[in-house]
From TrEMBL:
It comes from Agromyces mediolanus (Corynebacterium mediolanum). The keyword Transferase applies. InterPro entries: Isoprenoid_synthase_dom_sf (IPR008949), Polyprenyl_synt (IPR000092), Polyprenyl_synt_CS (IPR033749). SUPFAM superfamilies: Terpenoid synthases (SSF48576). One of its GO terms (biological process) is isoprenoid biosynthetic process. This is Geranylgeranyl pyrophosphate synthase. GO terms for molecular function: metal ion binding; prenyltransferase activity.
């Protein structure tokens, strides 16, 4: 990703400007709202910016030519797509705040999650009442605030477009993404509770449905589609980007599922085996359940989702998943999905610079370690 750092800087600057404007409104209301602004900035200061990058290169795929978009002469106005890319980062921050709340996660990126930060604020301030409940309530409101702000920032960008049809198309893609990822999140929560009432032979299919709607479309396909719409993509370009984005998004989430069980806490910012304690019914678990002997499957089902799992139990479950071949099968699935994305990219009617950058992004997404 030759231009990744420059793009990230542009998106970061747009987020900073937007937050400065919106937090000034909070400051005018009350100084007591300072934590909302501070925590918003904190949650938006890091991350890999994958969604922003896919959004930008979706735009570049539709609008780019034979020149290098950063080193050659370029009169195009990037402001609309940079604002849209930044809005996706705000949306993602909102989703993470709510996701950590749903999963009761203590950490995010090696730091306390939002509800834990508010809980700590309650304790340090000596306030009355239940600090944990205050933290959860405040985190819900922070997530809602970020969600609304993501909409505002997107609209700021779309208002700059001369072609109103492109603005409407991008807005439609954004709204569809918002609906699908919320549906996917619900399905993820549902599987943690309802898996026992479902036929065993359907669990891979149900896990795949969660992958597609909670992650694959939201993380890769939708940002590409939004950027492409802003760039006035042809139907052929849009279809090609979707053919690349969906399998890559699946590979992205499959890698995430492995990291949720085997990731290095120093790199992921999450405790080892976090998905095991949360009881995530991922594709990894679905495959393992098909391969395990009945007695071992029952033990897996009994331990999965126990928040009190100790390190030895986590290591035992990790070994069980690996020994049955489920990890190798997930790695093979990631490879096949990456190959499908790469093949679609090779045939896509898009600019060569976008093709090169999207190829580099694909490899980075599928092989990441955090």
């Amino acid at each position: 990703m030759a231009h990744g750092s420059r793009l990230v800087d542009l998106v970061h600057d747009r987020i900073e400007d937007f937050l400065a404007d919106r937090t000034s409104i909070l400051d005018a209301v009350s100084g007591d709202l300072a934590p909302l602004g501070a925590f918003s900035k904190r949650f938006l200061s890091g991350g890999k910016r994958f969604r922003a990058l896919f959004c930008y290169w979706g735009w570049e795929a539709a609008t780019g030519g034979a020149f290098d978009p950063f080193d050659g002469p370029d009169s195009r106005d990037r402001s609309p797509v940079i604002a849209a890319a930044a809005s996706l980062e705000l949306f993602h921050a909102a989703a993470l705040v709510h996701d950590d709340l749903i999963d009761n996660s203590d950490t995010r990126r090696s730091a306390p999650s939002a509800h834990r930060l508010f809980e700590r604020l309650h304790g340090e301030s000596g306030w009355v009442g239940d600090g944990e409940q205050f933290g959860r309530s405040a985190a819900i409101l922070l997530g809602d605030l970020l969600l609304g702000w993501s909409d505002e920032l997107l609209d700021e960008g779309l208002e700059l477009l001369e072609r109103r049809a492109d603005a409407r198309a991008a807005r439609v893609e954004f709204m569809r993404m918002r609906t699908e990822v919320t549906a996917g999140q619900y399905l993820d929560v549902l599987e943690e509770h309802a898996w026992i009432a479902q036929p065993d032979e359907e669990q891979q299919l149900r896990a795949e449905r969660v992958i597609v709607y909670k992650a694959a479309k939201y993380s890769v396909e939708a940002p590409l589609a939004i950027g492409a719409a802003i760039g006035g993509a042809t139907p052929e370009q849009a279809a090609a980007l979707r053919a690349y984005g969906l399998p890559l998004g699946i590979a992205y989430q499959l890698r995430d599922d492995l990291l949720g069980v085997y990731g290095d806490p120093e790199l992921t910012g999450k405790p080892a085996g976090d998905d095991l304690r949360e009881g995530k019914r991922t594709m990894l678990i679905a495959i393992a359940r098909e391969r395990l002997a009945p007695s071992t499957r029952r033990l897996l089902d009994e331990l999965l989702g126990d928040p009190e799992l100790d390190d030895a139990q986590v290591r035992m479950l990790q070994q069980t998943l690996s020994d049955c071949g489920a990890v190798d099968e997930i790695e093979a699935l990631i490879t096949r999905q990456l190959q499908a994305a790469t093949a679609a990219l090779a045939e896509a009617p898009i600019s060569e610079h976008a093709r090169a950058e999207l190829g580099a992004l694909a490899r980075s997404v599928a092989k990441r370690v955090s």
